[in-house]
Design goal:
There is one protein chain. By secondary structure, this protein is α+β, with helices and mostly antiparallel strands. It is built from 10 helices and 8 strands. A hairpin with a 2-residue loop joins strand 5 and strand 6. Helix 4 runs parallel beside helix 8 and helix 8 packs across helix 9. The protein is globular, with a radius of gyration of 20 Å. The N and C termini lie far apart (43 Å).
């Protein structure tokens, strides 16, 4: 029996257009097993809850991964029977709440998703035995206090769908704002406005993942310090903002 990481790596390679024979030779997994994983949701032994399938909709997984790294957490059921995935979405952005719910159902078809109202936000919540396998970045303590690195199969998905990953990170810990300045033009002071994007996260590793994804799609960015801490990434150049507007846009 192969673990989730091995299966997702094989299915991601198939999703990139490689033949079953090629993937079988590269991974050592039989073509029959890979074909079975493509054709059905294959539960792990003794586990009956719907099993998430990141490769079933890799763009949805890339987006959900960004949301999880920004504002998500995984916690065990009190009875030890499974895990809750919780992602916080601000009440001000109901469209993001809908997108988050939709992404979860694409990654795990048939799973239950519900909301828990908190002050100023809702927690999009879903139960499964498999969430720690789907998001192996899960661990004790806060994300910025531990190493956050993508598994090879996750990196393949992010490389194939960088914009969805960027959107998830912006929709969790980012924003699009309008800056303004004034200039004297022919003796008259005029106001000029220009948009920019910010991403703020205490984790050096998560900021690096965001910066690497921006590099991949050709977006120029800079690091801005909050006091002595470089928690903010800024996208301000006109061409790069235009790219972000085309693929990400403001929260809604």
């Amino acid at each position: 029996m192969y673990d989730m990481s091995t299966r997702m790596r094989a299915l991601t390679l198939v999703g990139q257009g490689r033949s079953l024979n090629s993937v079988s030779k590269a991974t050592g997994i039989s073509r029959a097993a890979i074909r079975a994983w493509q054709d059905r949701i294959e539960p792990l032994p003794g586990k009956t809850s719907p099993e998430p399938r990141p490769n079933a909709n890799p763009s949805a997984y890339a987006y959900l991964l960004g949301l999880y790294l920004g504002d998500g957490c995984i916690s065990p059921h009190p009875r030890g029977t499974g895990y809750y995935l919780r992602i916080a979405c601000a009440d001000a952005w109901p469209g993001l709440t809908d997108e988050c719910r939709e992404a979860i159902t694409h990654v795990c078809p048939g799973i239950g998703v519900y909301t828990v109202q908190k002050q100023g936000c809702v927690m999009i919540t879903s139960y499964s035995r498999h969430w720690p396998d789907v998001f192996p970045q899960h661990g004790p303590g806060k994300k910025h206090d531990r190493t956050i690195a993508l598994e090879p199969w996750q990196q393949l998905i992010v490389d194939a769908h960088p914009w969805e990953f960027i959107r998830g990170l912006i929709h969790s810990d980012g924003c699009r704002i309008i800056n303004w300045t004034t200039r004297l033009v022919a003796g008259e002071r005029k106001r000029y406005e220009y948009p920019r994007y910010f991403f703020s996260n205490k984790s050096d590793d998560i900021r690096k993942l965001f910066g690497d994804a921006l590099d991949k799609v050709g977006v120029e960015w800079t690091t801005l310090a909050r006091g002595s801490d470089p928690f903010n990434i800024s996208v301000a150049r006109k061409a790069s903002v235009a790219l972000m507007d085309a693929h990400v846009g403001p929260k809604y």
